[in-house]
Amino acid sequence: MNHFDIVIVGGGGAGLYAAMEVLNTNKSLKVAVISKIYPNRSHTSAAQGGANAALANKDKTDTVDKHTFDTVKGSDYLADQDAAAVLCEEAPRVMRELENLGTPFSRMEDGSIAQRPFGGASSPRCCYCADKTGHTILQTLYEQCLRLGVTFYNEYFILSLEHKDGKCQGITALNIKTGKIEIFPSKIVIFATGGYAKAYWNRSSNAAGNTGDGQAVALRAGIPLKDMEFVQFHPTGLRKSGILVTEGARGEGGYLFNNESERFMSRYAPEKMELGPRDLVSRSIEREILEGRGFDSDAGKYVKLDLTHLGPELITKRLPQIRELSISFEGIDPIEEPIPIRPTAHYSMGGIDCDKTGRTIMQGVYAIGECACVSVHGANRLGGNSLLEILVFGKIAGHEAAKEAQGFSTPSIPDTVIDKYTRYFRSLAGESQYERYAVIREEMGQTLADNVAIFRNAKDMKKAIEDIKTLRDRFKRVKLHDTGKVFNTNLINILELRNMLSIALTIAAGAYVRKESRGSHFRTDYTTRDDENWHKHTMFKLSKGELKIDYKPVTMGKYPLEERTY
Ligand SMILES: Cc1cc2nc3c(=O)[nH]c(=O)nc-3n(C[C@H](O)[C@H](O)[C@H](O)COP(=O)(O)OP(=O)(O)OC[C@H]3O[C@@H](n4cnc5c(N)ncnc54)[C@H](O)[C@@H]3O)c2cc1C
Question: Which has the least CB within 10 A, 23, 71, 326, 444?
């Protein structure tokens, strides 16, 4: 049995920052990072564009206050303003800390960190390393964790959060390499398992592993999820694969145009144009396509993103990965031709409900990063604010947990949980099982993409809820074909699908009850924001296995509710 003071589930940017901070706060603590993939392959490594901080390197007039206001306005006033203020105040500090740790930021002429414009921001404040920002941050943090002596359990899949009398006892996890179920008693567990936008399966920019595992485990353990209906569609996914083309491409001056060669954003965001916030730009693209001004192809309808006028030098220096991805996945070199794009499911604004220290309602359980909903993004996240969130709240939660761990008693987990999961895995291979996980997964992704995407209405969402419930019933008959112990990807795929199905239901059910349009949640049957009835968070809990929805007030601050225009 592996006893720890603090177990961090997830080795992305949030988990690694927290691990580093735990040991920087108290070297004597025993801390482990448990991760289903190798930490430096986490989705953080796919982040291209950058992280926001009001450093005022590029625009001397930028301030923390402007950053906070942009964040609250971008969230369509659903962000908790105290949390948004922490995010923006801490941003310059964490960015300098990363710089001091050796992150190879792109530079301005004077040597300071370069900053580019990003959507919904009033100043160019997005700090970047070419178009590989997440990758470089993750490598930097991983090095630090190795240096400090964090214990890593790589290729372990969390099965459950164990708790007694409302207090955390640790977790159980499947060792993917051996097939053994292992117990990790721990005084504190920090969830840092990333997002759930892969539930949209074929229409998503996310890594295959972004399946909402942490959120589903927390929900099963009685911890509420929040604002799950808010799923961000990024405006520019590659037409065929949904792979992301960073907002940095528009930040560097890229244009969007339709089949009439028109820069259509002039119709929707005359001031900000292509650099409007993501919800608005995605809706505008989708509307162009729906109204017949998109391009047609076997791979679906799309609009074009033109970078050709930026020239080969800028593209190869600042957007090299975008060029590589366009060539590999669309056969198009953006130096010579515009890139075919359409919006793609990208980011989970919802997640495990926590406060601005990362604490959840259960003693000893924290949540950070994309799996959490501390509520800095509200109904729509601004580009560059998520890398920032994982750093700021990873650091805060790591520090808080390190201080708190000393006061907690030694936890214990009974061995019987191992038998429970052994029996469950055996039952999946039983004779009465026949459903194929890949078919259920495909249908789940399709119903979400068809019915709970950019434009939503009651009829479609009801259909999605019914579809998902049927799929959950069918999942009870899902067949584990591979009964091998070593690296059983068939089993992992099934466990991920189990988690995604419960998350898919929260997305659809939350969207169905919210009778207004706000941020990423746009309803054609309720087209305006309704502050009187819906300026509140949606809260999701399981009660006797059934999903229950409740509400929680939004924390206001100095920014009053206003109409959002760009
Ligand atoms: C293509 C792309 C580009 C992006 N670009 C930007 C950008 O430019 N700027 C920005 O601010 N944001 C960007 N984002 C968003 C941002 O990158 C993510 O929100 C952020 O990196 C999430 O970090 P995280 O540490 O919370 O989770 P992740 O980096 O996703 O890490 C999750 C970790 O949890 C582990 N895990 C998951 N499930 C389990 C399980 N069952 N058991 C054990 N471990 C598990 C995984 O192994 C992984 O280590 C982008 C996102 C995508 C998809």
Answer: 23
